[in-house]
Amino acid sequence: MTLACAWFGVLGRGLLPLALLAWAPAAFAPPSTTWTEPPVSPEVQAAMGKADAGHPADLIKLADAGRTDAQFYAGVMLIYGRNGIPQDPKKGCAYEEKASSTRADAMHLVGVCWQNGMTGAKDVVKAEAAYTRATQMGFSKSRCALGRMLLGEPGTGERGIGLCKESANAGDVEAQLVVGDAYFYGRGVREDHGEAREWYAMAADQNSPQALRRLGEMYAAGDGGKKDTKKAVALWQAAEKAGDPLVCILVADQLFSDLTGGKKPGGGTYAFKGGVPVGDLDAIESWYQEALNRDPRPDVRVRAQRGIQVVQNLKAAAKSVSVKK
Description:
By secondary structure, the chain is mainly α.
């Protein structure tokens, strides 16, 4: 992985409301794009390395001298923050504005800046213009970024979903998630969970952790199509392997429910044909332990602790019966 690509590994969804897309390296060579990220000069590469070590002065100096590549990366650094370097979105957006005449990725970020008010005030007209221009320059991520904006505005949902579908059909996993969400929640389009399920499946096929989790939830509930809890568990396990810690509790609860005829951990009694399946309980306990260790949500920690206690009680009871025999 190049140094330039590594910089984009720190950028993810949700850092800013609505507009942010996942800026993984693939975002700079999406399917059907006509724009290619220009090479980074050795001088700027060296300055980026120093910025990674907490010393951004060289990168800022090159940006101030009018180096377009330095302006772009300095803008990214200041908009999102980098290795302890404080954020300065307004200055970062100014650098992206300077780089945007020749860089489609910078023009895209200009749209992000205007949409989120990072220049001082939100301006949806300027954001739309920037996304449109970035799309014309070949940066396909901007097409669905514009589409997301339109999905949130009255009377423009059809145009917005159309733009995101173009990117989604071209293989853009983030656009597939946007379209899935639009149909799932009825954002700008008529709510249709069957349609949402199909778009989530497209993103899941590309190993998107978020899509794998959501699709698993739909299979588990029979939402938008047939119910299949085994398929749900398989999707969640794939999501966990792809780096999603939020599915551990879902796997644990579903496996427990499948073992106990639909019951969740709590009070009462449990019946098992042929005796308590201790091996299955060990597997379930390990998933609850993973949820306890990795899932940051307080309510999930409570659920995981309760699940572990119930499973341990069942195993202790099984051991007691075995000793008595």
